[in-house]
Design a protein that fits this description.
The protein has helices at residues 76-79, 96-102, 117-143, and strands at residues 10-11, 50-55, 65-70. By secondary structure, the chain is α+β, with helices and mostly antiparallel strands.
Length: 169
């Protein structure tokens, strides 16, 4: 059921809008829910085992794509791939073996790199970015001239006894 926005579930198969290739098992029936409004639902029954890639018609260009494995991996989605223009910006479509192993994978999927995983890479990247930013801001701040003695201006403050009273009496 679509809970918010307008979405579809559309297989990468012949006859579907924006499907540049077929990424469902041979002999499987393609599907297209068309665009569903909030509260509407769509049901599709998979009768052929294999890997199915699908997309959302209004949001395909934003990377709203997904993969379903029914029974066991197989089919064109295994050897082919979702077109690079459709790949999500913040992750990748997981391999079928990872889906089968975990039963379900949330987006964004970032594969394990074997060397501490994404958290170590993330925090390392944040640290490097932060240190670089601090350095560049300090260089800019020092070159701005605000710390030079020559840029300081002496101000003279007059005391009350030195000021002239201009009120009418």
């Amino acid at each position: 059921m679509s809970k918010s926005g307008a979405h579809s579930a559309t297989s990468y198969s012949k006859g579907n809008p924006q499907a540049s290739n077929t990424l469902i098992p041979k002999g499987a029936k393609g599907w297209n829910s068309d665009v569903l409004q909030p509260g509407q639902s769509y049901t599709h029954t998979f009768t052929t085992k294999g890997t199915y890639d699908y997309y959302c018609i209004p949001h395909k260009s934003l990377g709203m794509v997904a993969r379903i494995v029914c029974g066991k991996p197989g089919g064109p989605a295994e050897s082919g791939s979702i077109p690079s223009s459709d790949e999500p910006d913040n992750g990748i479509v997981p391999p079928s073996s990872a889906i089968v192993k975990k039963n379900s994978i949330s987006f964004p999927y970032v594969p394990n790199t074997g060397h501490g995983g994404p958290p170590a890479l993330f925090w390392g990247g944040i640290g490097i970015f932060s240190l670089t930013s601090v350095y560049l801001f300090s260089v800019y701040d020092r070159k701005s001239g605000r710390y030079d003695d020559s840029s300081e201006t002496d101000f003279e403050i007059a005391s009350d006894s030195e000021t002239e009273d201009t009120r009418d009496e």
